[in-house]
């Protein structure tokens, strides 16, 4: 007859069902940490996105304000151009003294800050330069068209006010000799509207072309 064992089976491992308290606490801590990290990242991402939107809105507003101020300033400066144009329409022969009085009446420092001077230029063909220089030297000794060099057309500064300080360098400068100035002048000629040039260095500032 088979003999039944009286030895009881080993007890089931209770740790497989109920982990020890220390291990359970560790699992809970890790879970809480992960949830906290996810929540923190989500909050940071949302806040960062809101900050970017706010900064972009501030930047766009600042750009619009800057553009508006530039447009307003350019509109003010165009008043000087229109006033000078009206002056020329009424004066076929520009007298230096009359032009000085006209520019003084504009009160540039008070009404148009930033304008260093108001100038008139004369468009010349190459064949007209020598006669033009001779005529100008009768009242402006030392006048010459510069920079030197043959060109098909010239646009020499004949008058500039106030004729003081650095502006003394300007008479005779050929505006068409510099690409940015030439492009703006040609655009103004073709459209009949005021045209802004690209970035240039004033002849008054460095004396180039003398």
From TrEMBL:
InterPro entries xrefs: CHASE_dom (IPR006189), CHASE_sf (IPR042240)
GO biological process: one example: signal transduction
Keyword rRNA-binding in record: no
Keywords: Membrane, Transmembrane, Transmembrane helix
An example Gene Ontology CC term for this record: membrane
PROSITE patterns membership: CHASE
Residues that span the membrane, as ranges: 24-44
Top-level taxonomic group: Bacteria
Domain CHASE, residue spans: 152-210
UniProt keyword Membrane, yes or no: yes
Cell location: Membrane
Protein name, UniProt field: CHASE domain-containing protein
Organism field: Massilia eurypsychrophila
